[in-house]
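Running this now, will post back.
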Amino acid sequence: MMNDLIDTKKLRMFVTTVKEGSMRKASALLFLTPSALSHGIKGLEDSLETELLIRSGPKVSPTEVGKQFFNEALDILSRLDAASSRYAGGGSVRQQELHIGLTYTGCTYLLPAIVREFRESCPHVALKLEIGDTNSLIQQLEERLIDVAIAPIQREYADIVQTQISEDELVYITHPAHPWARAGKLERATISSQQLIIPAVSSNTYNLIDAHYRELRLPLTPFIELNNEDTIKQLVALNMGTGIVPSWIAKEEIESGRLFAFQTPKRALRRRWTIAHHSSVPKNLSEFLFIGTSKAVAKNIIQRIHL
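Update: finished.
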């Protein structure tokens, strides 16, 4: 019978191959030759009497049946690993891992609340964190180095599935001694002369700001470029220049009068925050729960301030 021919070694071959999206990468991780890995997965398909993988050159992706079987196989392996840990020399339970990528802003302002809520529903899932700008996180998703990414992603990418979790608005922020703050309004004629402190030129947010300045027919000449929006806020608080940041990260300072905020002229400059994963790797239960938790937390934290 076909279930007599399925062993955990073949299940692990299949799960690893789907996660990596490549026979070559999976075989290296499993210390197998590519031909041995291919033979093992073919044996699994034969025993199930169905095709699990779509093979297109060096890349592979699961069929529709393969996507469903991946979740089942992953659950089986996770349970077996946990049981083995429990009964092998009294060791602790081996944890399932979820690799998460976040921007610096996401890590500072969203991650603590997300982890607190996620732990309540998935206490045995170990979280591994990668911090970087949006472009680096997308690259890590494409290379299957992380499972999910939370970032302000502003365009679509091939093979990356995005779920919008919130939207924020970029605003100018100034020190209370700044002329705009003293006048109580943004003076459009002086925008081009500001010592701008903005996200780095390599970021998606810089591209948004650059496009807006081109709409205004103004030159964009940053004084300081940083990948950390929280540091931009701190430099503005020291009266080092005029910053452009999402309003929600400066909510406390704006409401207390320690910083002043002004909407961008002509139109609001808004970003969408998404949680993304690679399309070839089906989401397991922990990822579904993590996405749901992230969406609920972001909805409460990322809120535009009425200026």
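The first strand starts at residue 53 and ends at 56. More later if anyone needs it.
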